[in-house]
Amino acid sequence: MSAEELRKKFLEFFKSKGHAVVPSSSLLPDDPSVLLTTAGMQQFKKYYTGEADAMRDFGSKNTASVQKSFRTSDIDEVGDDSHLTFFEMLGNFSFSGYFKKESIQYADEFITKELGVPISFVTIFGGTAEVPKDEESREIWKSLGISDIREMGMEDNFWGPTGNEGPCGPTTEIYCENKAGGRAEIWNVVFNEYYKKDGRLQKLKNSGVDTGMGLERLAMIVQNKKNIFETDLFSSLMEILPAEMDIKTKRIAADHSRAISFLVSDGVAPSNKEAGYVLRRLMRRLISYGTGKESQLFKEIVANYGGFYPELNLEKILPVFNQENEKFSRTLSSGIKELSKFQSIDAKAAFKLYESYGLPFEVIKEYEDGERAKNLTREAFEDEFRKHQEISRAGQEKKFGGHGLLLDTGELKAKDAEELKKVTRLHTATHLLQAALRKVLGDEVSQKGSDITSERTRFDFSFPRKLTPEEIKKVEELVNSVISEGFNVQVEEMDLEEAKKSGALYFFKEKYPSRVKVYSVGSFSKELCGGPHVPNTSEVGKFAIIKEEGIASGVRRIRAEVMP
Ligand code: SER
Questions:
Q1: Which residues pair with 66 in a beta bridge?
Q2: Residue of the CA atom closest to atom 6 of ligand 1
Q3: Atom 2 of ligand 1, nearest CA residue
Q4: Which of 75, 201, 299, 362 could form a disulfide with 194 if both were Cys (CB 3.0 to 4.6 A apart)?
């Protein structure tokens, strides 16, 4: 059974059991407490807590999905038989619909009847002082004829939460093996009975179910393979890679090119922080292998996965990758030369190599089969990284702190009433600028950052190439025409969810409260924002773009001014 059939079979099975099939959410979550989407339940967090109503949104209390997921925490494990950074997660979810009995029965039926795969053994939660042992699951498994039931502790059989708070609970997990000797934990069934906040568990009012099954591991079992890289999800990628490459490196290259394709297609651009930093590491590690096969890999991935994930876009992936490739290749050989001078590399040296030549941890660690960096650990490297960030943050504070700013929202800064007036005009201009950019360049433009002082606004946004002079002119003209129309700037307060649904633009990195303000200018611009803004666009003044430049692959920066 192909992976494609497995996805389909899974969704159809749960549909037949009354589940609403929900598409995968983006790898970039709108939950700012996590960097990337790590599990299928993430897009459903608010249905467990009762903040949102599944019946109203999906017409059912139960859902199923195939979710694009990414786990940075597994990056050092990639290369073995079963770990990945990017993977697909099959999941069924219930928000006070069903609980232990049905979820275990469904899992058993799907694995043993639909797929005809025997279950080797299962695990249940063994209990702690705070959370009782899961006797109920044991009884259910027994009634289904499973006799090898193993008890596990907090570490293995208690899941969640994602981010710093959220639903979580005890799990029961299913293990299978095949004739080829492939074996894996394939399905994690979580009973969300608790909500964790500030380190404490509170009982959720209504219990829920959250299950996750890695498609790759399932395919390995079903397709009778020894490891996930022999399944049809990877075999064609492995074949593209040079025959002389060692197997572990091949696996990493295959994993990373998949991850890169999906991340870029979801709008991540390489940079030095957050999701962009993760992407850059993957790209640089892949580039350092020097296979020359990257484009071919991306093409194959889009051909293989594009049917199920129409967002995969080769025209987006190639230029973003090529740009990073060009940039990194320039420093790679000098970096390696520098690296070769060290007999042994400690965290300090590694961080220096990262800072001066862009060599990521993984490249340094793997250099010459890892001999020279034997004693280098990721923890020590990350400590160096953090120390450096703290130093630069301290520098920032010195620059802005201490001289009594009248306004400092992080985005807007003003020291007196006069500056406040100016930044307010520039702030409204910034909203108009974003709307105009989207009208001229398309909806792929989204805000990546913004900073407004009394002199200028600085706006960062996603876009793959330099703007032409004509485009810049068009954007300017559009903004100025809206200014001269003299629109009132309207503000409305509403619930965050409602605001997002209204189509208002928002900055995904920001943590918003549950009630938010939405500012709009006619039908031209609509954005979630804390203000302040001018009451009428005519007060903005004449708008001019003074500079347009690239600041990271796929990210552009515009500086603009307003004149009286
Ligand atoms: N949230 C659980 C996991 O990620 C089950 O979906 O394993």
A1: 90
A2: 212
A3: 212
A4: 201
Pocket of ligand 1 (CB under 6 A): 39-41, 91, 159, 188, 190, 210-212
pLDDT per position as a tens digit, 257-306: 999 999 999 999 998 878 999 999 999 999 999 999 999 999 999 999 99
Strand partners, 21: 64
Kindly report the pTM of this predicted structure: 0.71
pLDDT digits (tens, 9 = 90+) for 464-473: 999 999 999 9
Whether 522 is covered by a domain: the verdict is: yes
Pocket test for ligand 1, best of 87, 155, 210, 215 (most atoms within 8 A of CB): 210
Q: Which ligand 1 atom is at minimum distance from the Cα of 40? A: 6
User: For the stretch 118-134, what's the b/e string if a residue is b when 16 or more beta carbons lie within 10 angstroms of its beta carbon?
Assistant: ebbebbbbbbeeebeeb
Asked if 320 and 241 count as a contact pair (C-beta separation under 8 A), the reply is: no
pLDDT, mean over the chain: 92
* Helices (H) then strands (E): counts for the chain: 18, 18
Domain boundary among 230, 254, 285: 230
Domain count, the chain: 3
Residues 207, 124 share a domain: yes
